[in-house]
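Dear colleague,

Thank you for sharing your sequence with our group. We've completed the structure prediction you requested, and as agreed, I am returning the results in plain text so they can be pasted directly into your records. Please verify that the sequence below matches your submission; if there's any discrepancy, let me know and we will rerun it promptly.
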Amino acid sequence: MTPQGYVDERLGQYQEWYDRKATKMKAMHLRMRTVSVVGGALVPVLVNLDLGFARVTATVLSLIVVASVALESVYRYREQWKNYRSTEQLLGHERVYFAARVGPYHGQSERDAFTTLVARVEKAIASENSATLNVMTLGGQVNSELQQYGLPAQKGV
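Please find the predicted structure tokens below.
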């Protein structure tokens, strides 16, 4: 594969994918937060209204708020959004650094610069995959709780 082919195909493809995923996760996060905040603000108002439909509406709205908060804690849209966006930005920086031959690419031959680019891009993709897996499992919670108490993180979690 040529350097230009790699940049156009692999790097470009992943940049676009991470951009789409970041945009989607941000939208989901903001929707969930909006439902939670607006719903949470409306429930006390509805409870204090002396209308027949208000009690049922408050109950249904409370269930929707609880479901929204629970789903956000399960799917962790905010964390996914941050992971995807930071990886997309990192890939963009690598593309510019490689094209301008600055940073880690400064003074390297074409072949060495390409090898460095591939290694750095693939490492970024693998790191993001690992971070997303960690976010989506209890391992991240368990390890952070262990570290909070000064205990070593579990390996393989």
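Summary note from our side: Helices lie at 3-48, 52-75, 77-100, 110-135, 138-148.

Kind regards,
the structure core
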